[in-house]
Amino acid sequence: MSPDLVQPALVLSLALFAIGALGVFLRRNIITVFMCVELMLNAVNLAFIAFSRARGTLDGQVLVFFVLTVAAAEAAVGLAIIIALQRGRDTLDVDAFDLLKW
Amino acid sequence: MSLTPVQQELTIAVVKVVVFFGALLTLFSVMTWAERRLLAFMQFRLGPNRTGPIGILQPVADGIKLFFKEELIPAGAHKWIFVAAPALAVFTAFLSIAVVPYGGTVTLPRWGLLPAWLQGREITLQIADLDVGILFIFAISSLGVYGIVMAGWAANNKYTLLGGLRSSAQMFSYELALGLSWVGVILLAGSFRIQDIVAAQDGPRGLLHWNFVQQVVGFAVYLVAATAEVNRTPFDLPEAETELVAGFHTEYSSMRFALLQMAEYVNMITVAAVGASLFFGGWLSPVPFLPDSPLWFFLKLFAGLFFFIWLRGTLPRLRYDQLMAFGWKVLVPLATINILVTAAVVLFGPGLLASWRRMLG
Amino acid sequence: MVSGVLEDRVLMVLPFMVLLLPLAGFVVLCLFGDAIRRHGESRGAGILACVTVLTSFVLSAWSVVRLLGLVGGRDGLRFSQPYLGFEWMEAGGFRVPASLLVDALSGVMILVVTGVGGLIHVYSLGYMAHDEDNVRYFSYLNLFTFFMLLLVLGGNLPVMFVGWEGVGLCSYLLIGFWFKKQSASDAGKKAFIVNRIGDAGLILGMILAYHAFGSLDLVEIADNAGSLAPEALGELGVVTAVCLLLFVGACGKSAQIPLHVWLPDAMEGPTPVSALIHAATMVTAGVYMVARLAPLFVLSETAMLVVAAIGAATALMAATIALVQTDIKRVLAYSTVSQLGYMFLACGVGAFGVAVFHLFTHAFFKALLFLGSGSVIHALSGEQDMRRMGGLRRFIPWTFWTFLVGTLAIAGIFPLAGFFSKDAILAGALGRHGNVLFAVGLVTALLTAFYMARLLFMTFFGRYWGAEPHVHESPWSMLGPLVILAVGSAVGGFVDIPHFVQPVFRLPEHAEGHHFWLPWVASLTAVLGIAAAYYLYVVYTEVPARVAGSLGGLYRVLVRKYGFDDLFNWIARRGVVQGSRDVLWAGLDTAVIDAAVNGTGTAFRALSRGARTLQTGLVRGYALVMLGGAVALVSYLLWAR
Amino acid sequence: MTAILFYVFAALAVGSALVVVGQRNPIYSAFGLIVTLCALSAIFGLLGSPFIAVLQVVVYAGAIMVLFLFVLMLLGVGAEDRKSGRTLKTVAAVLAAALALEMGAVLVGAAPAPVASFDASTRAVAHVLFSAPYLYVFEATSILILAALVGSIVLARRDP
User: Fold this and answer.
1) Planar angle of CA A77, A78, A81, nearest 5 degrees
2) Contacts of D among chains (3+ CB pairs under 8 A)
3) Which of B319, C4, C426, C540 could form a disulfide with C74 if both were Cys (CB 3.0 to 4.6 A apart)?
4) Which residues of A touch C616 (CB under 8 A)?
5) Can you name the residues that pair with C89 across neighbouring β-strands?
6) pLDDT-derived band at C1, boundaries 50, 70, 90
7) Contact C336, C278 (CB under 8 A)
């Protein structure tokens, strides 16, 4: 489409990344934290796409594809862990999980 | 009147959208009436037959009634989401049908009445001809679940929440089978564009080239998964009256209720239209001696819609665990095997065929 | 492709049909085995198995006829490389197409495999009729046939290797067929493990061959063999290494010293299995492979000498052990080992065609002998000890007469099959390496005649010593194959196999020195052996015990089979188990590794005591540190730029 | 036209991302994230990557976020009742801002001048995806997904 959007896209990408990173610290709910991580991943995806557009190669697209796959796997396992945590602790506050084992 | 090319394109698009969605809305309202009548006939009743000739104006009456009812928002509801949910549901429903083609390309006749730039212009009978058309439908239909989930959650009510939960799990599970059932078709056509997929089903022997012949397993999976995807009987657990009052739309009334209903019917139409395009050759004629025409597409579409109504009149509802087990343990493996077989045939078929031909002289 | 390939469309497809029929049989029996058994249709299962293999035989014969019809290509080479239409493996320049190779050699082999195999299938109908698990048996047998055909038809080493491993698997399954018997399942495992040793050599050989020739295609290897750089040849060249490694594989499969120990134990399997796998087909795979790669082997004097020496040593050793065995099947097993040694001897002296010839004739008479012994065992309801037999000639005449034909054939009596092939081997060995190999061959021939005659006399002559009162002749499904095989053993020698397969080896057909005296000496040797056996086991039956007594030491060595089993047991027990415990565990593991690990642990525990205060367990704290680290890292990179 | 759309969607993305971070009720966060993802998908489309755009909606919005919502509703999660510590917040905000600035310094001007023609159609992406270096990774992801499938089932089972 329009090549002059690459630079704004990169700026958007880093803004989203910073917002996501901030969210990890602001929020206490483990699922929200998880979602913030997903937000950061998406910011990275955007950077990939922007660079792919800029360089005219498709490797960035393929990497985004892999990021999506990994994110899907990660979400499945992560949410399963969260369910297990909730069963064990009856809370989803990240600070409640400060032991390696119980 | 002289228009720039961009303006011309835009005009055509707007006209297409208006005409098409007008037709769709009409079809939706007729569907509500047709469903009630047909169900009634299947159950030896008469159904709505008082408003207008054979009750045909019943949808209008319903519309007026719903329009004038009070809009209730429950006290504990999450207001914004409660309001946004029906809109989102309808939005996604309409969006996905935009890429379904209902005819090939037509050339406008050179009538004097038409503006000069329209005469002899080629027009695709489709609102948006996307390169990734079928993926787009998949994407949008996967967004469709949010309307229901939001509706179910926002009302802050046990039954609606359960309805929303059920529907999210159900649509999530069956979406997989739905998507997988398309892959065989996509492999055969070698394209995500629905126009290409329809074109790939063209051939000298009419309906024998349609995908429901070669992709019979894929078609069967699609049929079941699509029924589940639009929450129709026997998969209408999210709104199972006997268990959940009315499921996710328990707390809705008036026009918002109407919107949810509309979303459901439009989804049904979408699914039937996609089925007609993917498995029944879209606008292609079933026999070689008749011409291809959009009429065929609508005929197939109506047949599909009738089929859904027929199902509702025939089958009892499944139990929830049966539903999930069926989706994951039957449909998904079946669709996967179908993909494997199709891929093998696409990959090795021509080579093997050629070598057999060579061997047989 | 190579210029020698001749287009024959039928021949591009037939081999696949030959292959797939037994596989189809296996699949059907495997999938529906339970259902078949539940419906009591196991006889139908057997018949299905027979039909697939016999049909496969007909198709094989057709293939060979088509092959003969090919107009001679380059150097009179006639072959066809059917291609299934896809690459099995492809990685960089390495490609393994799913292709077969049909030429004179594999033609002979598929005929033997499907022909003898088919007869043995038919025989099994009778032999296994009363076994409740015979559907499984037939499915294994079909699977074996498939893999064996794949082995001999494979167009490149990896495809051949699939067959090679497949037959090993089937051999294991069939030896341990009666897995409820401890000795049977042990024997199965032994066969499997010993074969693994050989297979390791084969894999290494394959890798090295790819390194040396840049191809694993059998035809291309043969083509490239002639144009190797001189440094690849020579005593320690890569060719020698390839050949020796491949020969290790052949040793494992074909039971050559020192990997022969599994074959006698393999007799725990059903007798038809012994006949099919451990006499006629699978064990000859090693010979087949060596013959197949003949253009390679002839390049290395060393490898040829090793092959010949191992073959000769095995032939002699196994023959001597066979002298003292009393189990009818074990005698035949050692006889098989001995005859395989003979074949390798022939390969080693460059007479590959003769080796294949002997393989061919041996398949007939050894299958015949095994099936005959099976008939004897069947007649005596499971008795295998020859000392409890005797005089059976009168009870089971058909078995006796066919067995007699087989015995005379293996002993090398004119005009039976063994005479020709054995004579040809001796002729090939004559004049090589100071005639040592020839002498060994002749002595082995003498011993062969002797122990086979001993077997015959102990079983069928003299008084009946057994306990089974109802000695009964076998059913026709068993006798039919016996008769056919007997006919084959009788006339098989007139087929000019060496000449037929000679082009495959790409060797000049050197004129065998025709020594008019050699047939006479060989025949005389055979007659002498038989006569000695007659003297010892029919006329003066008390003499053998006296001989055994007076040669006590030697006798014990023979009965202990030269101690190979003891040696391997010792290696396993002393070397592996004890060595692991005393040296590796006590010495290395505890004293060095554990100490190091524990020491590290102790050190780190002390360190960690300090670091523990940082460990709050609050995830976001860690994340904050990570973020800070990221900021620091990027700062550094920016600064460094 | 494209630029206008881009800025509209970018604003939407940033706004909804702020909703994700700012809302105390995780369900609102989830809806915010969904909007962000859809906006990003649109931006991908505007950057000429239709395939990835659609994939983004299918996988992220259609699958992953449904899973999140499902779990949120299943567990009946309410709004957070405790606030995070002020120190943590401050440090985090400073660090995040620092990171953003640094990344800006790296990224802005890092991109080469964009090429004129760009083909990221499904077919083109598939060609790259299914050829030499990525093909093996692609195959490996199937194992990854299988492992994730098994792992999540095992983890979430009620009776371990």
Assistant:
1) 85
2) A, B, C
3) C4
4) 98
5) C96
6) very low
7) yes
> With a cut of 0.95, is the ipTM above it?
no
Inside any domain, residue B117: no
**CA B188 – CA B202 distance, rounded (Å):** 12
Q: Structure tokens of B274? A: 């996609």
Cβ atoms of A21 and D96 closer than 8 Å:
yes
Q: Do D102 and C638 touch (CB under 8 A)?
A: yes
Residue D126 lies in a domain: yes
Q: Is residue B118 part of a domain?
A: no
Burial class (CB in 10 A: 0-12, 13-18, 19+), C209: buried
Structure tokens at B220: 């069967």
- Report the length, in residues, of chain A: 102
Whether residue B175 and residue D70 make contact (CB cut-off 8 A), yes or no, is: no
Both tokens of residue B3? 């228009």
- For position C76, what pLDDT does the model report? 55
Tokens of C315: 């032939």
Which domains are present in chain A? 28-91 (1.10.287.3510)
pLDDT tens digits for range B3-23: 777 777 788 888 888 888 888
Q: What is the CATH number of the domain that holds D22?
A: 1.20.120.1200
For chain B, the residues whose C-beta falls within 8 A of a C-beta of chain C are 348, 351-352, 355, 358-359, 361
Residues facing residue C96 across a β-bridge: C89
Q: Cβ of C628 under 8 Å from any chain D Cβ? A: yes
Shortest CB distance from C616 goes to which of A21, A24, A98?
A98
How much is the average pLDDT of B31-54?
A: 83
Total domains in chain D come to 1
CA neighbor of C204 nearest in space, from C235, C233, C238, C242: C242
Query: Could you give the percent of chain C with pLDDT greater than 70?
Result: 94
Residue D105: inside a domain, yes or no? Answer: no
Nearest neighbour of D106 by CB, restricted to C621, C627, C634: C634
Q: Does the pLDDT of residue C3 top 50, yes or no?
A: no
Q: What is the 3-state secondary structure of chain D?
A: CHHHHHHHHHHHHHHHHHHHHHCCCHHHHHHHHHHHHHHHHHHHHHCCCHHHHHHHHHHHHHHHHHHHHHHHHHHCCCCCCCCCCHHHHHHHHHHHHHHHHHHHHHHCCCCCCCCCCCCCCHHHHHHHHCCHHHHHHHHHHHHHHHHHHHHHHHHHCCCC
Tokens 């991908």 sit on residue: D44
Flag whether D96 is in a domain. no
Q: pLDDT tens, A63-98? A: 898 998 898 898 989 888 888 888 877 777 777 777
CA distance D58 to chain B (A): 4
H/E element holding C103?
Answer: strand C102-103
Please write the tens of the pLDDT for every residue from C569-582: 787 777 778 888 87
Percent of chain D with pLDDT over 90: 3
A93 reaches D (C-beta below 8 A): yes
- Yes or no, beta carbons of B139 and D122 under 8 Å apart: no
* Residue C75: pLDDT band with limits 50, 70, 90: low
Tell me which residue in A33, A95, A100 faces C618 most closely, judged by beta carbons.
A95
C-alpha–C-alpha distance, residues C563 and C561, integer Å = 5
In a domain, B62, yes or no: no
Is B1 a residue whose pLDDT tops 70?
A: no
Contacts of C12 in chain B (CB under 8 A): 355, 359
Nearest-Cα distance to chain C for B305, in Å, is 42
Distance of residue D133 Cα from the nearest chain B Cα, in angstroms:
22
CB contact under 8 A, A46 and D43: yes
Domain that includes residue B210, residue range: 74-104+130-350
Residue range of the domain that includes D40: 2-79+119-156
Query: The pTM is what?
Result: 0.56
Chains A and B touch (3+ CB pairs under 8 A): no
Most B CBs within 10 Å, among C8, C13, C20, to test the B interface = C13
Structural domain includes residue B81: yes
Tally of structural domains, chain B: 1
